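Worked problem 6 (solution included).
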Amino acid sequence: MSGQFEATTEINRPVEEVFAFLAAGTNDPKFSPRVQSITKTPEGPTAVGTVFTSTVKDAGMKTGRKFRITEFEPPHLIRWAEVSKNTVTADEGGYDLESTGTGATRVRIFNVLSGHGIGKLLVGFALSAARKDADAFGKRIKAAVEAS
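Solution. The predicted structure is:
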């Protein structure tokens, strides 16, 4: 079983600024409390092939995650795929950014979650929790970008 969750928010910053904040990747702990730490390889600007390695805490358990950037089109599109082997993974995810023409940016984030092994039994719960938190997640992204 797999499924998608998404959130959309409007951020009071120009699209280039929002894109730069999100493309850095290492800002994730500023808006995602589940991300305990994150690093980027290689150093330098994010591009297709960049890998972000993180430690996350879900349901009281810490796991290691690795995401590879699969598409990168400044300042409008970022796509990733999880390459780590976990029971529930984000096989595809991304940001879509659109200038609203008022110095603000509309951001859509999404992730497609899949279960593997016992994760096939857990992915429904993970999707439910992610969908329940989606609007709040969008608001946390907005707050983090606007505070930067």
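Discussion: DSSP finds two helices and seven strands in the chain.
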